[in-house]
Amino acid sequence: MSCVVGACFPACECGIVPIVRRLVGKGVPIYAGVGFLLTGPLINPMVILSTFMAFGNDIKIAAERLILGFLIAILVSWVISLFFRKNQLKLPIAAEVSHSHDHQPLQKKISHTLKHAVDEFFDVGKYLIVGCLLAAFVQTYISSETLVNLGDGQASSTAVMMGLAYLLSLCSEADAFIAASFSNVFPNAAILGFLIYGPMIDLKNTMMLLSVFKVRFVLILFGVITSVVFTTILIFQNML
């Protein structure tokens, strides 16, 4: 259910981290939070529409991103549920919302909303800035041609494009246009790896996750996402 809700919620991979943090702090199971974390940036309506447009109104790649991304998100969430059941936040979040807030006037509710937004900005924003700085450094000093030359074969090219997606840390609403520019260089599996892996986990997103969740949880989440995306895409392509 969390994957379904995430798919309808238009948010980028870094903007969704504070949301998931609050949900988990309010008692949502960590594995359900992961489902929301993965599908929100990956297969929300805006991302699927931009993917459709980026590939020349081709429904095939957009549908593959939607279906495979949703299945991978469910699989990752299930694997995480096998490892973690308890809250994995570094610091507990105080219960700031009481039942009495339901009867407060609209102006008071808006004031609380703005207060929470400011708190989240200062809590998480600094890690987003550092992550963006690192991603900009990679884009400036590591040429994509260097990585392209490493990709020879379906498995290696998929790994290279996944690595490129992680380092570039592109917004999921715009990454399809970058992926389309590689469509004549890499096979379909590598393009899907780029489109699915990047919105799930990237450099600046990792920085933000490390600021909110325990290191062990983030490392295991990173490994599960990487292995599940890589394996699922290769299996899918070999079945075609």
Q: Compute the gyration radius: what is it?
A: 18 Å
Structural class: mainly alpha
Task: Write down the overall mean pLDDT.
Answer: 84
Outline type = globular
> Main sheet, how many strands, which sense, barrel?
none
Helix content: over 70%
User: How is the quaternary structure best described?
Assistant: single chain
Query: Poorly predicted ranges (pLDDT <50, ≥5 residues)?
Result: 95-100
How widely separated are the two ends?
Answer: 29 Å
Task: Give the topology string: H per helix, E per strand.
Answer: HHHHHHHHHHHH
Q: What's the domain count?
A: 1
Explain the overall architecture.
- The protein contains twelve helices and no strands.
- It is mostly helical and 240 residues long.
- The chain has one domain (2-89, 105-239).
- Residues 95-100 have low confidence and may be disordered.
